[in-house]
Write a structure and sequence with these properties.
The chain is α/β, with parallel strands linked by helices. The chain contains 18 helices and 41 strands.
């Protein structure tokens, strides 16, 4: 009778007692009916009988607390997410009362990543469970449970934007999914302001050690207030990472050892144990800024690589027992490497040969090698945690010399060469063009580093207070301990449609990357406080009335490191630069005699990095900049597409009744340009950060291409493209329009 009704009618709510083997077997007869009816698993037979209405074919249900949307064969529902929405609507329409508390999505595997399922509003809905179903339930509820499903950190923001009002997260299932989800805990705290608790189910780890984590908001708030003097909702994601790491490690009853690592099962569990070991080792020594597991050339036993800022001479002065203690930790060998170590290499050819090789590079390889790096750089950065930057060299390093006879190489800079991090493969020996298989460039792996170039020492070249601001002069935060360079002049409109004059510079001069948003409203002075003169008695001269402006927009993203300073005093009336020396003018290809030979920057002109190619005739043009330390310098464009990773910065915090905490900070900058210093002089030095970088054409006209932000260990300068800076700053609150300032043709050197 039931079968005949299902075959002949439409839109039944079918409640099935799956514990009954007879009913379970009968379900196979209903395959053709599943698309026309709603099937719901029976929760309470007693309540079903109580609310059944004998006069209708539709079951009127009350007391149903859990609704399970399941695709046991992982075929129909998974391929038709719209059918799930229809199923939910039909169920909600037929289930009476406000008793439904839980919706479970079980075994749903969607073809599209992060498929969104909108759950209709329902009073009383408290819990949504995702069991083997990776999806986004767009709904208003209190508790999210993840069982045998894992998310990536990059997916959590999207998930949290749709799960409104969530107060707790419960993670369960097998050990693999539990430990994979441990990576996303910090992201949940950061993107879910209403979250109050995260808890995992009990499981075993390592040598049968009991593992269970329960993190409550008041504990995180207490640590954040004690360590950073603010509420957790105001913390950056790196500050929260520091606190979450601490709470997790504090709750683990015993410390992990090598035996736990070797007796663990699966990549996720091994990675969690190793992360915990490295975290504890990072806390033991103040000089350590990063600790990670690696194998020498990918073979042999696992070694803990400890990156340190400690001077090697200081290490040699330690007693032998101290050194021996630092060479082993919980059964693992350790290897200390200085983060500022690099492959020292000199060009092994005379100047004329070097110039000839450089000319050949521009003509034959510039466009191709840029396209190869642009295609591979981000993937390499994501796959190799030890990678610092991708650059180019005219040759390969051999015995501390660059052999240019071997032709251009793509250079991969790392902190510890030959130590391949845990779960990673060795670097490729060559990189191919994505469109032309016959275009291949060999790879040269070198030790090196990238460093932002704000400085903390006095410089006597640009320290004078100017009556009118000029590009290239010294600037810094009021009462600040670092200084940088004033960059290109800009004109911008506020949200009130007011037109203001300002200048660009680097954000890291004022704040560290993880704290960049706090640079907003910083008072800017010229010259910087560190550039004040010291008299014969050693007393710092205090220049009065140094204030020149205030930061009104700043951005430290994956593409830019930039700040916009509104000029409040000493407004420039022309696009002037600080005065260069005659030698600097000569070396940069300008004439120190007569106005015709001087650099001219009129009408606020700029070039997009895509125009800096051999095909456009711009790749081999002179690149110049005005910095507060080096003044006017000339360089050569090496790359218009590269990436750098700022790592080895350690964020320190404190928690009640604990030692100071550290967590490694990493930040990637993508789509950057690289400028090589000329053989005569260094293009960029500490203190030049924020300077404008320009292309000089044959008429000595300057075209702005970007802002200098830092340098690689081989003196290659990293430049952020100007169009990226203007684009991102314009999206900041209070800025409606921004462009490079245009003055009519006037004298350019102040």
């Amino acid at each position: 009778m039931a079968y005949n009704a299902l075959e002949s009618e439409n839109d039944f709510l079918v409640v099935v007692d799956t514990s009954n083997e007879l009913i379970e077997s009968c379900l196979k007869q209903f395959e053709n009916c599943k698309k026309r009816h709603t099937f719901v698993r029976l929760i309470s037979m007693t309540k079903l009988l109580k609310y059944r209405n004998q006069d209708t074919q539709i079951l009127l249900l009350g007391g149903i607390k859990e609704l399970i949307i399941s695709d046991s064969e992982r075929v129909y529902l998974s391929k038709n997410p719209e059918s799930i929405k229809c199923c939910l609507h039909r169920c909600f329409r037929k289930i009476k009362g406000r008793t439904l508390e839980t919706i479970t999505f079980k075994n749903l595997e969607f073809e599209e990543q992060l498929t969104k399922i909108k759950v209709p509003a329902r009073d009383g809905l408290k819990i949504i469970k995702l069991k083997g179903s990776k999806m986004i339930p767009a709904a208003n509820f209190e508790q999210l449970e993840l069982k045998n499903v894992s998310f990536k950190s990059s997916e959590i923001k999207t998930l949290c934007e749709n799960v409104r009002g969530i107060k707790s997260l419960f993670i369960s299932g097998n050990e693999k999914h539990i430990f994979e989800n441990m990576k996303i805990i910090t992201s949940f705290w950061y993107y879910c302001p209403t979250l109050e608790m995260i808890e995992t189910a009990k499981c075993t780890i390592g040598q049968n050690k009991l593992f269970r984590i329960k993190i409550e908001k008041n504990e995180i708030d207490e640590c954040c207030k004690f360590s950073f003097s603010k509420h957790s909702s105001s913390c950056t994601i790196n500050e929260l990472t520091c606190m979450v790491h601490h709470v997790i490690n504090r709750q683990m009853l015993s410390q992990f050892t090598r035996d736990d690592f070797e007796n663990s099962n699966g990549k996720a569990e091994k990675q969690f144990i190793m992360d915990a070991i490295c975290y504890r080792l990072l806390q033991r020594h103040d000089s350590y800024v990063s600790v990670y597991p690696a194998k020498y050339k990918g073979e042999g036993e696992t070694t803990l690589v400890c990156l340190t800022k400690e001077n090697n001479q200081n290490v040699l002065l330690q007693t032998l027992p101290d050194l021996e203690q630092r060479r082993e930790y919980v059964g693992f060998k350790t290897e200390e490497k200085n983060v500022y170590s690099f492959s020292a290499a000199n060009v092994s050819c005379p100047q004329e040969v070097f110039d000839d090789q450089l000319k050949k590079y521009y003509v034959n390889h510039f466009d191709n090698i840029n396209e190869v790096i642009a295609f591979h750089a981000e993937r390499l950065l994501n796959e190799h945690k030890n990678l610092i930057s991708v650059s180019v060299s005219l040759g390969k390093v051999r015995n501390e010399y660059v052999d240019v006879t071997l032709g251009p190489h793509i250079v991969l800079y790392v902190n510890a060469k030959s130590y391949i991090p845990f779960f990673e493969k060795a670097f490729p020996e060559e990189l191919k063009h994505n469109n032309y298989v016959n275009i291949v460039y060999p790879v040269d792996v070198r030790e090196g580093y990238f460093i932002s170039m704000a400085d903390s020492v006095s410089n006597r070249r640009a320290q004078d207070k100017l009556t009118k601001l000029a590009m290239g002069c010294s600037i810094g935060a009021e009462n600040g301990k670092t200084g940088g360079t004033m960059g290109p002049l800009v004109e911008y409109k506020t949200s009130n449609n007011l037109t203001c004059l300002g200048f660009l510079t680097a954000c890291h001069i004022f704040r560290k990357p993880e704290d960049a948003c706090r640079a907003l409203n910083t008072i800017v002075v010229q010259p910087s406080d560190i550039d004040e003169l010291v008299d014969l008695n050693g007393v710092i001269r205090q220049t009065p009335n140094k204030k020149c402006g205030q930061i009104v927009a700043c951005r430290y993203s994956e593409y830019v490191d930039a700040a916009l300073v509104r000029i409040d005093e000493r407004h420039p009336t022309a696009t002037n630069f600080i005065s260069p020396t005659y030698d600097d003018l000569n070396n940069a290809g300008f004439s120190p005699f007569g106005s015709f030979g001087l650099p001219k920057y009129q009408h606020g002109r700029s070039l997009h990095e895509s125009q800096l190619t051999v095909r456009n005739g711009n790749a081999d043009k002179r690149i110049v900049k005005f910095g507060k330390v080096t003044g006017l310098r000339r360089g050569d464009l090496m790359l218009d597409q590269t990436v750098v990773r700022l790592r080895n910065y350690t964020l320190k915090g404190h928690c009640p009744s604990s030692q100071p905490l550290k967590v490694e900070f990493r930040h990637e900058l993508k789509h950057q340009m690289a400028v090589m210093s000329s053989p005569e002089s260094s293009f960029f030095q500490k203190g030049d950060s924020g300077c404008g970088v320009f292309l000089a054409d044959s008429n000595n006209d300057l075209w702005c291409i970007g802002v200098g932000i830092g340098m690689l260990s081989d003196s290659v300068t990293i430049v952020t493209p100007i169009h990226k800076i203007l684009e991102e700053l314009q999206s900041c609150v209070g800025i409606s329009e921004i462009r490079l300032k245009s003055f009519e043709a006037e004298e350019m050197i102040t």
